[in-house]
Predict the 3D structure of the following.
Amino acid sequence: MSNRDNFSQPTKDIIAKRAGGLCCFPGCGSITVSASDESDISSSSTGMACHISSASPGKNAKRYDSTLTPDERMHPNNGIWMCYKHGKLIDTDEVRFETSTLKYWKELGENISRLMHEKGVDYTTALKIVPKQLAENNLKIENLQNENQIIGEALFDSCIHLTWGEKLANSIRDFLIEHSRNSIIHGKGGSVEIKIDYNKITILDNGNEFHPKEFASIEGSGGKMAYSYLTDLFKKDIIITTQRIGDKNRTVISKLNQPEEIFDITDCSIELSISEFKYGIQDYEIHESCQELFVVLPKYFTASDFPRNGVVNKLENEKRPITFIGENLSDMVVGMIKDKYPKSELIII
Ligand SMILES: [Zn+2]
């Protein structure tokens, strides 16, 4: 007798219906059910209900969760609907496809089919408009052998190409590969950890203290090219920040949904009220290890909220590079910020 906690047929049907019969592999969306020529009442299915946490323990069964009961393991919540090709892919590589990744894919796939059903839009449109985030994914690079594949697959699995766009995703992949190599070779670190989650990618390495900009200054290096390309082309879209924390370098690449999310990413950040903006901020404290300052601008400010000449403002004496983060700024206000703080960067959300 099998000791696998297999799905019953009614459970498989629930899993398929919740996904609208479409494959949940991000970007696939293949239809898996149709009429069959066999008889007037038969249908054919090329889809499969895959276990998120494995149905049974086994060699390398990373997704087997011994804390689940058999009922939980056989529940529709533990199943994701896939076309045959992608079902085979995730079932044969339990190391690559983590539980958290598949749970996110299931949620995304179900939300896409719901949008198609409710709004009458096609798959491509639904994929574009469905709310998305990065699927959680953690990896560790301990030697330089197949870092291209490990990083490339982890990024793809996080849905970054759908969430942040193909071009930015590809540039980030280049940067992560070069950055990992630099950390291990030049930084003499033993390992690089990459954590992908929600709106950010965190890179931790235990090598010597360094900032990607420093390696980026090595003329002709791949690191320089990847960093420059990423920061030049996407400086209005993403934030890259590096801080030495304990014995590790922590670099975070983030795409903010709200200006205030910067406080979760770095403590090298402050927030200004309208009066602090207008009358000048007299004092703020950020950690001495901060190599840059992020300033969240007040909401809805306009021309006459800008400080008059002669206002004492600590920001004007700030030696570190400043990046302002604002929401719904008018072109007039953007122009005034550039005039007032010509060396600053501005990210508009
Ligand atoms: Zn598929």
